[in-house]
């Protein structure tokens, strides 16, 4: 209910306790009250109460039951201004009111603890001292400030700089402000962003007896699909520095590109595929075995396991895997070394033990050393 101040007149000079009240039917008003003070007693009488010399405040009023009053007791507040100590008693207000009452005006390089907006409370101590000169860069600007004592995180908060857990500082948050002359705050935020992304199609190869050996034919053209991709993006001071995909939903499936590989005219029944030999010819194969390949030599006229004389192009195998007489094409898996066409005519201990899948015959020891041991593809072509 709004007070009707035109019916209120505070008393500023009294010698005995008095009560001034204004009564309007159905309304209750706060009134001013005063007490008997000595001639030099200072008092500040307002419509909200009478402040006594000791800082207490008396409130008085009238309600339906008659005269009512209460007292708000003052608390003693300690002040330390650059080593000079004094006390003041106030019943209400903030640290700013303490400074105003005592006439203390901090210089531009002084700080006040606690903050000016801190409410008055019992056992409160107000300190005024010269602050630590500090440069703070944040949010696109650099300020020169005078900071209170404490750790970096607490001081920045007191100066009005809000920090998130992700923000980056050039100093340790928990270090003393005394160790810092310049603080740079880099704001870090994360945003989830969505975008449409194309999805590549796959190329699928299929053998076809309807297409000539060495030829290819596109059966189905490939078409790219689409996906809705959600990325978690990291921004530092407004600049995107990284992103990671956190979700991906296919909204349009890609269509595979299907290529028919010609096997028509091949001497291999049921070919598994084709390869291109070192002469550029497309060759069909029935199967391929991949593994470790080695090389060996033997004196001229030496016989193989199948009874034929050892020769370049005759190789040793495990006949349980690659039958004797099989026509082969041997090339390193990385394509850097080609032994070429060969026939399975021999075997050996390493082959039967499974430590090698083929042992290639050479006429000289140096050729064997040059081949060494390497991973190879052994295509069975007939």
UniProtKB/TrEMBL annotation:
Gene Ontology terms describing biological process: peptidoglycan turnover
Cross-referenced Gene3D superfamilies: Resuscitation-promoting factor rpfb
GO molecular function: hydrolase activity, hydrolyzing O-glycosyl compounds
SMART domains in alphabetical order: G5
Keywords tagged on the record: Signal
Domain G5: 185-265
Gene Ontology CC terms, in alphabetical order: outer membrane
Signal peptide: 1-34
Name by which UniProt lists this protein: Cell wall-binding protein YocH
Gene name for this UniProt entry: yocH
């Amino acid at each position: 209910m709004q007070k009707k101040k035109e019916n209120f007149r505070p008393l500023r000079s009294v010698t005995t306790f008095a009560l001034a009240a204004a009564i309007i039917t159905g309304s209750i008003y706060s009134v001013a009250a005063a007490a008997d003070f000595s001639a030099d007693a200072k008092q500040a009488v307002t419509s909200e109460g009478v402040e006594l010399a000791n800082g207490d405040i008396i409130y008085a009023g009238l309600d339906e039951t008659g005269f009512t009053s209460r007292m708000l007791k003052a608390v003693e507040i300690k002040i330390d201004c650059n080593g000079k100590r004094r006390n003041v008693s106030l019943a209400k207000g903030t640290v700013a009111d303490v400074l105003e009452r005592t006439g203390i005006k901090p210089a531009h390089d002084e700080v006040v603890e606690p903050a000016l907006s801190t409410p008055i409370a019992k056992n409160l101590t107000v300190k005024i001292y010269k602050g630590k000169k500090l440069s703070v860069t944040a949010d696109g600007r650099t300020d020169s400030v005078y900071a209170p004592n404490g750790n970096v995180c607490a001081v920045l908060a007191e100066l009005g700089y809000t920090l998130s857990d992700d923000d980056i500082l050039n100093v340790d948050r928990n270090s003393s402000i005394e160790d810092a002359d310049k603080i740079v705050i880099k704001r870090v935020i994360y945003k989830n962003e969505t975008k449409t992304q194309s999805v590549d199609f796959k190329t699928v190869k299929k053998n076809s007896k309807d297409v000539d050996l060495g030829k290819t034919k596109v059966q189905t053209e490939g078409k790219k699909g689409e996906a809705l991709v959600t990325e978690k993006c990291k921004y530092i001071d407004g600049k995107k520095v990284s992103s990671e995909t956190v979700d991906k939903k296919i909204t349009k499936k890609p269509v595979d590109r299907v290529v028919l590989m010609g096997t028509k005219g091949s001497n291999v029944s049921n070919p598994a595929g084709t390869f291109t030999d070192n002469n550029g010819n497309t060759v069909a194969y029935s199967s391929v075995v991949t593994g470790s390949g080695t090389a060996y030599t033997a004196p001229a006229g030496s016989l193989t396991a199948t009874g034929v004389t050892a020769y370049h192009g005759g190789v040793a195998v495990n006949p349980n895997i690659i039958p004797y007489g099989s026509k082969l094409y041997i090339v390193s898996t990385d394509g850097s070394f080609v032994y070429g066409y060969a026939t399975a005519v021999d075997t050996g201990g390493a082959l039967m033990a499974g430590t090698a899948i083929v042992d290639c015959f050479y006429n000289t020891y140096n050729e064997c050393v040059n081949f060494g041991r390497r991973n190879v593809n052994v295509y069975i072509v007939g």
